[in-house]
Amino acid sequence: MDAGSLRNLTGQSAARVFVLTRAVSLVCLLAGCGGTQNQTQIYRASKPPAADSYSPASVRKPSPSPFLLSIVPSKNKSITMSKKTEYADEFFVVLTNISKEPQPVFEYWNGWGFRVISFELSAANGKLFVLTLKGDCCDKNTPDTYTIDPSEHQVFAIRLDESWQVQPVLTVVDGMPITLKAVYQVNPTRESIQKHVWIGRVESRSYNLSLWQCPPSCSPLFTHGVRP
Fold first, then answer.
1. Phi, psi angles (nearest 5°) of residue 108
2. Structural domain boundaries of the chain?
3. Cα–Cα distance, 178 to 212 (Å, whole number)
4. pLDDT at 37 (0 to 100)
């Protein structure tokens, strides 16, 4: 084989190698192999969620309570229930910040703070009743908060009138002995996360009280029992 033929054969081989190399590169590029695939996977893994996304799984777990809850009953350690507000004696539930940090809490008038207080009532026979607010809190609703400083309080003025409901149905006999426990509970929501409001449940101790119904002249909220 002369030198000219050898040069032609070498040129043809180099051309075939070049074409084969470009073809392999193109296939690899279309298949997403090598560095291109890795970069795509990293981008997808690190892509942030949508700004308005919310998942209960992302809610922080409840932390130890920064609060103490207590009841200040009306005179003679009694509680009165009445459909008419003027006959329902006012008493108070006090939420105290026992932590060393200021604690933001929802205002009681808005939808996030409206039902944070409920009650558990136990009759002498041990039967348990749960008292919760019913209805809507307001026409306009924004998650406003205010701050309870360390050793300071939030005070809830309570009247057990027609705005409250009891489950199951409670029959009241004037002067009947009960135990009453207040409950403060904030559920996890997007707003409680954004406002840095503590999430969890706090219970007061059980208070030994006497329960009274409204006077005979008013319409009772609950089924009347037999007067002693």
1. -70, -20
2. 3-46, 63-224
3. 10
4. 35
